[in-house]
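Lab notebook, design round three. We kept the backbone fixed and only want residue identities now. Task for the bench partner: fill in a sequence for the structure below.
Input structure tokens:
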């Protein structure tokens, strides 16, 4: 009895070759939980520097002192309330900025009239730092919650608009020719080709917008805030509590890192159809 050897299909061989080439020329095989390696290394260096005296408490509080300060703030000073207050401001401002930036980018990216009306003001806004116009916002909206949310929204809006608009305008013109050839209407072409093609740009803008919203949060919480991480840092600065200041900075950093990781993981799921070096 002769055994029959089955030759793999050409498409299977092509996929295998493609994966091998990406692994050889690209970043290599993905490591499980790799996104925690960098922060863990920073923490290890910080701990080693504090333990050996290279990093003195006058320069930066030791990690164990920061843990003690975190526990004290959690038990005695309503740290959870401050965290929730900051998250609420950041979430509302970021949501407003993302929605507004995406709508403006779609209108500007899909219409010449829309671009002539919207793109110029956005580029002017891009060149004027939002933090520089906070005094005007205070005069217009006061120093309550509205000013803080609007500031975060405007900071988040620009990267969403820029990257989404660029993604819309970067769609290969051959797709439009193909759609016209096979008789696809404009609405269907926009829904099934243009918007999915602009999604990578939107997600890249989201990563920048998340970081920008936290930058805005750090600044606006210095203005008449009665709760929030920035309020906690301001009080700690007045009393010379360096360890509490570091607690606030670490929380801001954890916010940003977790949010950025969430956007990246979402991008991998949503853009699974793209073949990139990341795989």
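Proposed sequence:
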């Amino acid at each position: 009895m002769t055994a029959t050897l089955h030759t793999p299909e050409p498409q299977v061989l092509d996929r295998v070759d493609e994966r091998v080439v990406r692994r050889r020329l690209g970043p290599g095989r993905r490591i499980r939980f790799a996104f925690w390696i960098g922060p863990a290394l920073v923490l290890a260096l910080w701990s080693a520097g504090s333990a050996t005296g290279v990093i003195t408490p006058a320069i930066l509080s030791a990690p164990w002192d920061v843990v003690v300060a975190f526990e004290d703030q959690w038990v005695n000073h309503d740290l959870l309330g401050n965290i929730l207050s900051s998250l609420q401001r950041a979430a509302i401002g970021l949501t407003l900025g993302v929605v507004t930036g995406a709508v403006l980018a779609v209108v500007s990216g899909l219409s010449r009239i829309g671009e002539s009306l919207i793109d110029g003001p956005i580029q002017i806004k891009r060149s004027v730092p939002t933090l520089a116009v906070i005094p005007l916002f205070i005069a217009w909206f006061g120093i309550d919650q509205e000013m803080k949310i609007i500031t975060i929204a405007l900071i988040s809006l620009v990267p969403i608009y820029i990257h989404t608009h660029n993604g819309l305008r970067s769609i290969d013109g051959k797709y439009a020719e193909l759609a016209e050839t096979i008789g696809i209407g404009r609405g269907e072409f926009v829904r099934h080709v243009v918007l999915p093609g602009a999604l990578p740009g939107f997600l890249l803008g989201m990563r920048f917008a998340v970081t920008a919203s936290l930058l805005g949060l750090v600044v606006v919480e210095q203005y008449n805030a009665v709760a929030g991480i920035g309020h906690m840092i301001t009080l700690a600065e007045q009393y010379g509590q360096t360890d509490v200041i570091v607690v606030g900075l670490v929380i801001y950093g954890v916010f940003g890192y977790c949010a950025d990781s969430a956007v990246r993981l979402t991008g991998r799921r949503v853009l699974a159809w793209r073949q990139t070096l990341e795989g």
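Keep this in mind before ordering anything: The chain has eleven helices and no strands.
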